[in-house]
Amino acid sequence: MTRVLIFGAGGVGCVYAYILHKAGASVTAVCRTNYTVVKEKGITIRSKIFGSQQFQPTAVRTVSEALEYGPFDYILVCSKAFAGTAEMVKDAVTPQQTAIVLAQNGIGVEEDYAKLYPDNPIITGVVYLPVTQVEPGIVEHGPLERFEIGTYPPNAPSAAKQSCQTLSDLYRAGGGSAPVFGDVQPQKWIKVAVNVAWNPTTALTMCDDANYLRSSPRAEKMIRKVMREVASIATAAGYPNVITDEVIERDIQRPIGRLETGGKEPSMLTDVREGRAMEVEAIVGNTLRIGESHGVVTPYLEMLYTLAKGRSYAIAPDGEWKPIARHGRNAICKTHATRILELRERAQREQRTEAQLERHIVLYCASQIHALDVALQLAVRYKTNAVVFRGLYADNQ
Q1: Which interval of the chain is the signal sequence (predicted)?
Q2: How far is Cα 80 from Cα 59, in angstroms, rounded to an integer?
Q3: In this structure, are residues 73 and 4 in contact, taking their beta carbons and an 8 Å threshold?
């Protein structure tokens, strides 16, 4: 029996776990926030293709915990493509046996795995799978499922080619679709052109794709210019005539067709809304660096990368982050703190509940305090207790 380890049991990982489970593979899934549900109840999939399904993979919390269910023939990496991910699966990789399958966004993401595991087959792919984990262990899946795969590098040994074909056969046996390409990099360039253009743009504007197009007569033109810059990079990297005008037009027509029905939310926009780190490096940074290495000038791409890095830094700052230096900040804090104390005293006189008071203070902070860091201090910390809040007030006198 084929043994598969799913690293990253989010929406994509859950659907791929189901396909491989249905094909007869022994599936172990490394889970995080959904561990308890998957362990006790399994995974539920509501799919436009597969219908309503429920199945029970072996749920573990860590790669090391998964080792008792190995050795694994395949490790399917479905997590976001962040730096250091390649090392996280190291304990489960059996040299010369385990094929590492990358179901990740971005370009050039294979290099870290190839360096760490030079004797193992590396299979990389392009995921087309509209899927969302709406609750822990519960996944909703739309009407598309396609995983375009190929070996890395394209001229990999015959054993790696056979491992790739075997995986494709497993997908087909499980009702899925994983066509094998002799060189899958052209497909990856097409996907990254779409992602580079739409993901940071929607994350920075906080518009879904259709509303972004609606926002300005220049919006569509900018998307086209970014995709053409990526096309120039792909050409310089050895893949000419891949991101053609026809490919760009086909992609643009999708959100145009959604102008009246409602747009789609790219993954980076979802990450911003949820306060999560974005895959800026894998999608935008790697593309930019490949272009720079070939001397391709890409001003739109460079701008998007720089702004997206700033947005990502604001979401997940490091230890160097400093609060805004604002003239007269203490006076601002004192004024608002006084007003909030008055709201508290009035609520006590009127015998209002803590929930009612909380609502009043949140509304006050949201409508009257324009300095976000001040608002957070006064709206969040006060809820611990009155003593803590009064202490904050005293600190700002």
Answers
A1: none
A2: 19
A3: yes
Query: Which class for 377: exposed (0-12), middle (13-18), buried (19 or more C-beta within 10 A)?
Result: buried
Is the whole-model pTM more than 0.90? no
Structure-block tokens of residue 145: 């499922």
Q: Which of 84, 109, 103, 97 is nearest to 11 (CA)?
A: 103
Yes or no: say if 255 and 209 are a contact pair by the CB < 8 Å rule: yes
Distance between CA atoms of residues 141 and 132, nearest Å: 7
Beta bridge partners of 132: 140
Task: Let me know: does 57 contact 27? Beta carbons within 8 Å.
Answer: yes
Per-residue pLDDT of the chain (397 residues; tens, 9 = 90+): 999 999 999 999 999 999 999 999 999 999 998 999 999 999 999 999 999 999 999 999 999 999 999 999 999 999 999 999 999 999 999 999 999 999 999 999 999 999 999 999 999 999 999 999 999 999 999 999 999 999 999 999 999 999 999 999 999 999 999 999 999 999 999 999 999 999 999 999 999 999 999 999 999 999 999 999 999 999 999 999 999 999 999 999 999 999 999 889 999 999 888 888 899 999 999 999 999 999 999 999 999 999 999 999 988 888 788 777 655 555 555 566 667 677 777 777 777 776 666 666 655 555 554 444 444 454 454 443 444 434 443 443 3
Rounded to an integer, what is the distance from CA 377 to the centroid of its chain?
Answer: 29
95-99 contacts at long range (C-beta below 8 A, 24 or more positions apart):
95/119, 95/120, 96/120, 97/71, 97/73, 98/71, 98/72, 98/73, 98/74, 99/73, 99/74, 99/75, 99/123, 99/160, 99/163, 99/164, 99/167
Burial-class residue 292 by CB neighbours within 10 Å (0-12, 13-18, 19+). Answer: middle
Q: Which stretch of DSSP H or E encloses residue 111?
A: helix 111-116
Return d(Cα 37, Cα 27) in angstroms, integer: 16
β-partners of residue 44 are: 54, 138
Match 């679709």 to its residue by tokens. 177
